[in-house]
């Protein structure tokens, strides 16, 4: 407690020291928050990468501001890492344990990076990886999604959409907060297929294509005998060199940099680069063995660049402290000069950005892995990494996307061959099974080759680090990890932790008040019955059909998550059917959205010369035989309580790739007990991948009478409704005329004896309808049996409210 008081006192002194002219509330600079996906720290030029011209644009951001050398993300796979950074909360508080969103239940976390900027009057936009980035449903904070998943693998699109975001913020007269989530260098590597290895791309080339001789061997790979560096991908037909795979990764880093270049071009052309703060990070390390999904240094060490015109000194480096991704949100609040919400686990490092020291700064970063291979780690300021592998039992093998790489299979082959390399063997054994705990001297061994946990010379250091780790787990409420942290060498203690982590997620999922259930999506207003991402078991679908590998552990290891396997049995049907029936009488329509993809089926290409055509066709047919695309039909259906009806059916080819299929209710309406299903029939063998399933309904709103046109003077409020029960959600839509910013018009509810600003209201149609605002208020009637709402003008000038309408939607 004394430490905390010291920290608070110092925090006060430091905030008093700030030059307030520099904070964003005064200067209204734009902010671009860039995340790279699976980018290794060591693949940037500014970080010492020797690949020529690998990252000029990312380097430009780094060199124009401050680089933080001691930055770590606090989870090593996509969604948990992004959830931590977006919420400033550890996993026990944000509840995002894995790629599946189910464990997060129905919670809405109010304070996130975009809500901080929206509260400060910014226009908040996002491009790319939105569903991965912000797993909360309904999510809050973004006014506008500029483009969805995958779009940021196209630099031209990044340019076009950045321009649109800049134009919109100008039109709205609001500074811009633009969250650009670059999908590269996540797999989908340029010129590379996991299945067949190197191949020629026909489009979307990086601005420079590297050859393996230009590429460095990853520093965290142990040396491997030269003759062990070639082998075949899973279904490859010829030997491929390990460095071809690494080259494909680097070519994709280059394309990520091209995208960032296009974003910068849009700012340069608008002449506002010097009025914009750029913050850049990666969500974790590269998807290669020893990187992503591990808590080794490569897994969590990330670049962090902050380029803040007029504040950060060009080319400055901060390397004295370690900083975690939970510290980003509090820092953004501080940069905006907004109070930092008390519940956040992270702390603001704004003084460091201003070139100051924070004497009481936490000398470590605590890292969590609650997904498949449950573990905890800590990186310390004095350069040590300590990992506790709760999952280690000597038998369980490490399960990760990186085990599907060519590199992994080459190390595995080296391990099994008689002339193997002892270093490579030890390394792959360690990766595959781990040990109960590991200690590394990161300053001298950043590749984590030498485990010092049993070295007597580090006994005192180890005990000091362990004490810190247990303390952080206790203080932050990470109780589920404590057994293994206190006693890592005990198999029982490790099992206790694994079980506690699983039980924590399971108890939330089975709690009817918490479990994921239908909810209204603030972006499109639809009632979402399910929004499944790789998680057939935890969604609403009955996924017991044979061949389905959407298992709760994230899919079959052989085929990967979301795989559907057809055996070739005559007329085999795989059926996703909702487990429960819905009272769908209020549904106006139902929408099925999903993505169905074959496993990178080779496209038929026009042969240039006649000479090779025959060979090419033969090779293609060979590949197709190895990876056949199932032929068959799809039917999308509903059950009216008596029998199944088909909305549509047709050839399977018609339903490939991204689908958004909307069907109106039948003339007599849906029944009180409606089920929905997708059925896929095929009589040949093959594999398909299903992802991004969303089932959503349009529901009728019921109108409630509302007062006519009102002018609200400064400070005045308008009472809207009282004594309304049995609602789940109320929508207010209105437009208004005011000299001042609309953000001063507050929607409040009366609760616990006082007026409170409603947490999760959202604006939509801001840009499309030009100042038409719709505010959603979702308040459960059990919480507040008497609803009182008001609109309050807290601006200093009158606001005229037009076309006020108030509607309610049924509880669900
Ligand atoms: Ca990622």
Automatic annotation (TrEMBL):
<comment type="similarity">
    <text>Belongs to the sulfatase family.</text>
</comment>
<keyword id="KW-0378">Hydrolase</keyword>
<dbReference type="Pfam" id="PF00884">
    <property type="entry name" value="Sulfatase"/>
</dbReference>
<dbReference type="InterPro" id="IPR017850">
    <property type="entry name" value="Alkaline_phosphatase_core_sf"/>
</dbReference>
<dbReference type="InterPro" id="IPR000917">
    <property type="entry name" value="Sulfatase_N"/>
</dbReference>
<feature type="region of interest" description="Disordered">
    <location>
        <begin position="598"/>
        <end position="636"/>
    </location>
</feature>
<dbReference type="InterPro" id="IPR050738">
    <property type="entry name" value="Sulfatase"/>
</dbReference>
<feature type="compositionally biased region" description="Basic and acidic residues">
    <location>
        <begin position="612"/>
        <end position="625"/>
    </location>
</feature>
<dbReference type="GO" id="GO:0004065">
    <property type="term" value="F:arylsulfatase activity"/>
</dbReference>
<protein>
    <submittedName>
        <fullName>Sulfatase</fullName>
    </submittedName>
</protein>
<feature type="domain" description="Sulfatase N-terminal">
    <location>
        <begin position="30"/>
        <end position="337"/>
    </location>
</feature>
């Amino acid at each position: 407690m004394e430490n905390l008081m010291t920290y608070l006192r110092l925090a006060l002194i430091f905030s008093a020291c700030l030059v307030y002219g520099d904070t964003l509330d005064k200067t209204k600079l734009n902010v671009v928050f860039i995340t790279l996906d699976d980018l290794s720290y060591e693949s940037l030029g500014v970080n010492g990468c020797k690949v020529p011209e690998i990252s000029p644009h990312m380097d430009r951001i780094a060199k124009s501001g401050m680089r933080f050398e001691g930055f770590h993300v606090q989870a090593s796979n996509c969604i948990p890492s992004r959830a931590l950074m977006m919420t400033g909360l550890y996993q026990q508080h944000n509840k995002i344990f894995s790629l599946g969103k189910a464990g997060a239940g129905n919670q809405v976390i109010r304070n996130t990076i975009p809500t901080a900027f929206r509260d400060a009057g910014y226009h908040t936009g996002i491009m790319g990886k939105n569903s991965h980035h912000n797993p909360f449903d309904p999510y809050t904070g973004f006014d506008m999604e500029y483009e969805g998943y995958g779009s940021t693998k196209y630099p031209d699109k990044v340019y076009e959409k950045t321009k649109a975001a800049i134009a919109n913020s100008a039109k709205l007269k609001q500074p811009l907060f633009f969250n650009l989530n670059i999908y590269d260098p996540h797999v989908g590597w340029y010129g590379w297929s996991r299945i067949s290895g190197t191949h020629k791309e026909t489009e979307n080339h990086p601005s420079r294509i590297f050859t393996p001789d230009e590429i460095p061997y990853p520093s965290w790979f142990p040396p491997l005998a030269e003759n062990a560096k070639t082998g075949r991908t899973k279904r490859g037909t010829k030997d491929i060199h390990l460095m071809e795979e690494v080259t494909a990764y680097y070519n994709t880093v280059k394309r990520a940099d091209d995208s960032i270049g296009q974003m910068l071009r849009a700012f340069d052309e608008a002449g506002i680069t010097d009025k914009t703060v750029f913050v850049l990070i990666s969500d974790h390390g590269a998807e290669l063995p020893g990187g992503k999904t591990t808590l080794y240094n490569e897994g969590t060490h990330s670049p962090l660049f902050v380029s803040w015109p007029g504040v950060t000194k060009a080319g400055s480096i901060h390397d004295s402290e370690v900083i975690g991704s939970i510290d980003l949100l509090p820092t953004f609040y501080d940069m905006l000069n907004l109070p930092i919400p008390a519940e956040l686990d992270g702390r603001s490092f704004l003084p460091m950005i201003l070139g100051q020291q924070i004497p009481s700064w936490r000398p470590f970063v605590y890292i969590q892995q609650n997904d498949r291979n449950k573990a905890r780690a800590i990186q310390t300021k004095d350069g040590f990494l300590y990992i506790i592998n709760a999952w280690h039992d000597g038998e369980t093998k490490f399960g990760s996307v990186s085990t599907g790489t060519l590199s992994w299979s080459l190390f595995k082959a080296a391990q099994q061959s008689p002339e193997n390399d002892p270093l490579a063997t030890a390394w792959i054994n360690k990766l595959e099974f781990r040990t109960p705990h590991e200690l590394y001297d990161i300053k001298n061994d950043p590749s984590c080759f030498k485990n010092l946990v049993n070295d007597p010379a580090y006994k005192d250091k180890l005990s000091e680090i362990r004490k810190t780790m247990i303390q952080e787990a206790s203080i932050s409420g990470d109780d589920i990890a404590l057994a293994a942290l206190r006693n890592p060498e005990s198999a029982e203690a490790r099992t206790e932790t694994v079980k506690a982590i699983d039980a924590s997620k399971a108890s939330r999922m089975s709690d009817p008040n918490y479990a994921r259930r239908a909810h209204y999506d603030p972006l499109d207003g639809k009632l979402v019955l399910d929004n499944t991402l790789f998680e057939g078991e935890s969604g609403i679908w009955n996924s017991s059909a044979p061949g389905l590998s959407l298992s709760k552990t994230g899919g079959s290891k052989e085929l990967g998550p979301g795989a559907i396997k057809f055996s070739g049995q005559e007329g085999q049907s795989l059926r996703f059917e909702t487990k429960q029936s819905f009272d769908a009488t209020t549904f106006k329509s139902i929408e099925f959205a999903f993505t169905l993809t074959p496993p990178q089926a080779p496209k038929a290409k026009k042969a240039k010369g006649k000479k090779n055509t025959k060979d090419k066709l033969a090779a293609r047919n060979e590949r197709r035989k190895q990876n056949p695309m199932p032929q068959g039909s799809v039917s999308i259906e509903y059950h009216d309580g008596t029998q199944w009806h088909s909305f549509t059916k047709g050839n399977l080819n018609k339903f490939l790739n991204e689908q958004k299929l909307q069907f109106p209710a039948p003339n007599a309406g849906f029944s009180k007990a409606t089920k929905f299903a997708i059925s896929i029939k095929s009589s040949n063998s093959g594999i398909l991948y299903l992802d991004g399933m969303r089932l959503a309904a349009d529901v009728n709103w019921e109108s409630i009478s509302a007062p006519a046109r009102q002018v609200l003077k400064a400070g005045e409020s308008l009472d809207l409704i009282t004594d309304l029960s049995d609602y789940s959600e109320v929508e207010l839509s209105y437009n208004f005329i005011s000299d001042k910013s609309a953000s001063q018009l507050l929607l409040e509810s009366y609760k616990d004896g006082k007026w409170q600003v409603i947490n999760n209201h959202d604006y939509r149609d801001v840009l499309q309808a030009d100042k038409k605002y719709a505010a959603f208020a979702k308040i459960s009637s059990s919480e507040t049996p008497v609803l009182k709402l008001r609109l309050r003008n807290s601006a200093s000038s009158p606001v005229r409210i037009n076309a006020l309408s108030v509607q309610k939607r049924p509880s669900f």
